[in-house]
Amino acid sequence: MPTQGTQPADASPRLASAVRRRAARVLGDPPPGVRVRRLRGCRGGICALVVTAALALAPPLAWSQPGERDRPAEPRPTLNPAAAPLPPSPPLLTTDLPDAHKRPRRVALLPLKSALVRASELLAPGVPRATHVASLEARVLRALRQHPYTQVLSPADVRRRLAADHGLAAAARAAQARYRLGLEYYMGLSPARAIQSLQEAARLFEDVFRDVSAPKALADAWFMLGVSMVDAGNAVQGHVALKRGFAVQPGRRFRPRFFPQRVEQALHAALADHLSTGNHARPYGDAERLTRLANRLRVDALVTVTLRRARDGAPQVVVSTFQGKPQRFDSEVALPLEASATQLEPALSRWLACLPVQARSGAAPPRRDAPMFMDTAAAYALYLRQPTRRPFHSVGFAAGFAQQLRPGLEWYARVHMFTSLSDPYRDLLHAFNSVRFLAGVGFALQRGPLRFWVRPGVDVHALGRFIATTDPDCKLYGESHHLCNQSTVRNLEQDVLVGFHLAVGTQVALGRRFFVLLRLSGSAYVFPLSNTDDLNFPAGAELGLGYRF
Amino acid sequence: MVGVAHPAPTRTSPSRVSPTSVSPTSVSPTSVSPTSVSPTCVSPATLRRRPALWIGLLLSIALLPACESTNLLGGVWRATEAPTGDTLVGPDQDMPGVELVLGHYGPNVSGLVRFYRSDDYAVPREAAAPRRECACAFVHKGRWSSATERFSFVLRGCMPGEAVADQVYVRGDFALSADSPSLLEGTLEVEDPASSLYGRRQRWSFERFDSVSTSDLSCEPVTDADAGNTASGR
Fold this sequence. Notes:
The structure holds two protein chains of two kinds.
Chain A: E1 3-4, H1 12-27, H2 44-57, E2 102-103, E3 105-109, E4 113-114, H3 132-145, E5 150-153, H4 155-163, H5 166-187, H6 191-207, H7 210-213, H8 215-231, H9 235-248, H10 261-277, H11 287-297, E6 301-309, E7 315-323, E8 328-336, H12 340-354, E9 358-359, E10 372-385, E11 393-406, E12 409-420, E13 432-447, E14 450-462, E15 467-468, H13 472-477, E16 490-491, E17 496-510, E18 514-527, E19 536-548
Helix pairs in contact in A: 1-2, 3-12, 5-6, 5-8, 6-8, 8-9, 9-10
Chain B: H1 44-49, H2 53-63, E1 75-79, E2 84-85, E3 97-105, E4 108-116, E5 136-145, E6 150-157, E7 168-176, E8 183-190, E9 201-210
């Protein structure tokens, strides 16, 4: 049953204490060591309602003992007591994450539907329509947008996004073609074929959410289907189809005497039936359909607003909220239209206060103030200045460590082990091993799962057995042979080169902890002054896997 | 000079070679693979069949300039047929065996020529007796032209036969056979005007035999010879 209104905010302490008393009656006193805690992130009134509803409906419960907190959480109650038992919801609320890691909650406000129509106006197209629909939509939008970490799609945005969705375009075109065909069959007095085509058209229009983006198209399909069925003598199914047409467009009106009298009677009956028995709280279908719609719109939650008449005939606003993950209706609030100006915002505010905040994908909840990154990588390097006539390749592995000092600033240390292979002309007499030590500071930028950084620093390179020559006799007979011209031999064995280093790279998060690393770097050696003319300017690339602590 | 006909030697297959002459298993770190074409090379036919390999090819061009034939000649080559043309090497007692030991490094080639008593490559000539023997000579100015696929070099040393005790300046000019990359064909020509053999040209063909080992590179100079070490070419 929908909640009739909400409690004012100043009632929170009283409600909270009432809830505690109610809990004590139902559950008994808590055992020693168990402490009753407030729900974080919820405002008092709405949480009190939640807990009250849960206690009223819950099966026998028992206080959990200390140490039992690791057990799977019980389903979380919602404002909608009629909702089915729910899976555990994400534990993150607005206070659980620092701002940098919050992903705005994406909420779509679906186009408002107004059932404030009278059956007597069905065949009176000249009667002016109510003008409060647009202002009510704007009011709901304002109420949603004033909340932090909330990104709101307006009804216009929703229509635009659905209309531009290429994944729906083909089905929409097929639906339109079916509708035209059905219309031609109807005009050609072939009601059976018209019914078949119009049924397919309506189904396809529903699949592509035309009731949201272009409701007239879907309503036309239902109405023409209903009219065809009534014409074919199938009044019962025709009534159902016409009623579904009014569910899509409750305010639809028709010219008098455009349809035969029995069709006009059927339209009247269908509209009256819809106004009295239609589900105005869920104007866009069930949870499964809304989940598909939320996925299509890439939003976390949907808000629907419907205008209807209460039993006493007074206009009423029904606000329904739906979460795509977990798939559930969070709340259904019915407010008198005249009170919506003051009560609409609190109702939405309380719902948003309990709507979980998601961490940005790939960004782990920062359990430490200074996250550390470790990685190992396969490495490749090429010297842009070398004593050989052709470049030689250096392959190896690297291991690194970085720690964030402040957001965007880090220090790092890295070690490379390289084996340098002979060049094509074998000017490098031997493959040799070398070790590089890098250290410095880095400047990082996090964008979703990607983390980019620039890391200047110092490069200390200990060379192994580096001997190069261009004399072929030295290569064939060895550098100590009498034919080997010693003046052509460059010997950098055991030299240590020191210089500046600059690296750019990115980390692509794989889940919360692991990441793939891609790193490009270059160095310029300046010490010792005499030997940097022979071997200098290594450029490198690395690809690896890392872990974030 | 008109060439002298030699008795046609029997072709020696590698399996007939004495195991003491070359040890295929004793390849030192300086050994040269006779067929060392870079494994990163991709045939055009493969590229046509798998166009996706173009990406790999571009990367190879950018990062692996080693994809070129820089070591086609490296290895031990042996003459397996009698030479034709003028008399230059031999006749001595028998047709000597001639062996090229080459290291190929891009545009440069180094190596030596070793002579055996006969074409069975069983008994090497004695390096310490240059007046009677002619054991080996170093290759100088070895050049490989990848454009023409020709190999040229200079020998300064003795030649078994008439110039066994003289230093002669011999130019070699060889090319890989179009039919087989294991066949090297070309000429040895005396280019020393001071030599009595000036102008003699002899055509040889060599077949690849093995990779180079450290023992193949031994051609030490002899210091006590009366007329210098003609054997080593110094």
